[in-house]
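User: Fold both of these, please.

Assistant: Here is the first one.
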Amino acid sequence: MSQTLLEMAKDLVLAQIQAKTLPPDEMHSALQQTYTTLMTLKAQEGSDGSVPVATPEAPSKPVTWRKSITKHVVTCLECGASFKQLSVRHLKDHGLDGRSYRIKYGIPRTQPLAAKETTARRKEIVQRARPWEKAPTFVKAQEEKKREKAAVAQRKKTARAKA
């Protein structure tokens, strides 16, 4: 099991990508950072083969919510888990609701907390079902329009008959 540091760093980064905790586009920087950390650990390694344990401080880069919502998955910005939709139940595990989650990460109120594909599919279903046409107020308004058209047509008929 004599792997080079570069091979070890590669294996660690690939495992993160496969576990979906690391987006593939960040692979290069993660590989460099992991390799640097392994080199540092090797340099700190004592003669007895032990390494003093120091918790590395994770660089806190600003999280962009736009990258967390992709075509097929939406990634929770709290824990990094991927879903088709961020459910109320999942957000409750973090002590949040949809509104507070949006405020915390600066997500617009109109942005769905679901994958783009899921949102598009729902929109298509609604367009096909046309539920607004079944609403009582819509039906009533349509009936009134029909009555108006019938009344106008009747007036035109009587006007032609008199002429």
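And the second sequence with its predicted structure:
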Amino acid sequence: MVRVSARASEDPSTSARPCEGCHVAVAREWRGSQHQRAYVDADFAESLAREPSAFCRSCHAAEADPTRAAPAELAALGVACVTCHMPGDAVLAGPVRAGAAEQAPQAPHALRRSPGFAEAAACGRCHALPVVAASGSRIYATVLADFSDGSFTVFAFDGSTWTTLPTLAGAFAAMDIDRDGSLWVVAGGALSRIGAAGVWESQAFPTAAVKRIGGLREPIAWVTQADGALWLRQAGQTFTRIELPPPLYSATEKYAAESVTSAGTDFWVTATYEEKRPGRKGSQTRRALLHNGPRSEPLRCTEVTTHSPTRGMHTWPPAAHDDCATPYAILLRASTWTPKKFPYIGLGKALKGQQAFATAKFSEIELGGQKLVGAAVPTVAEGRALVEHIARKVPRSQPELVCATPTELRPLPFDLATGTLAP
């Protein structure tokens, strides 16, 4: 962050002397340190000779005017006590360590303690790697937000000269250049674009804070918001909100867009959603890849388990919503070693006496490369009741209700009075 000493009334070259009188040990450590030699270091001097920019001088000779070469006395000062500890009129320090408050002496000067001063962001304005966006000979760079006020500065290079753009408020999140060469920045939950007059122009997104932006040099640019909303913009147009379809494997949640990849007029959206299955206390975060092209057969990723020996994407039907005409309750995942005429005693015990499920048609099925046990049910309501019951009664069963007519391998005619399979 380019900064000129806030202590204009005093000589910057002597600003550290009052500190050295009391903080003797710290001052001795600073003398000859990399901070004190930040500007006169031979490697830095060689680099600065090749590219004499304010961006570099603002950190390496922090008490000098960064727009010109540092005078000898400030070059020798480098990064001094006041550089970090006096961004204003009071000495800035971190919080007192636990148990040390009683022994802390009364400071002979104004003192402001800030938890942020003990965090990485306090050093980030110089020690963070720059965030860079480039297009042709045009380069934009910034570093982490200044912890004290949450603002940051963007530096622009046109191929020969570095200039400083107006300061932006808010925590920096991202920046990029669009196809026309304009710079866009996400900061403090807002999206801003640097206009032709060198002034930041805010881009309004009404529903929530802006989270990410991308694709500015692609045919389709995109913005995601903190509430998961997605906005797309084709060349020459404005951003338009895109309504994503409901998740295939959740009857209640909605997608939260994360990022977009485009090719021509096609685009693919990476999104997350929360899926809660019957019998589980909490939900699980799932990730999906959506395409704006013609809808194809949905696939679902399967991990290696005793029930699913193969890992990868497999055909899987969507969750059954209220308008599903063919609800099917998947109740158990059969193991790879399950015998062909296995009686499923545990499932039978759970079904014993449950005449409310008399209309369900139980069977072994094949789905997504797996052997499963389930039941075709006449209504979505009955299917939900069945999977909830099995989730409570059969540990680790992971039942779910889908909308499908799967391939039947073997009928399972359970006698609900006894809980056993009929001969």
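The first strand starts at residue 91 and ends at 93.
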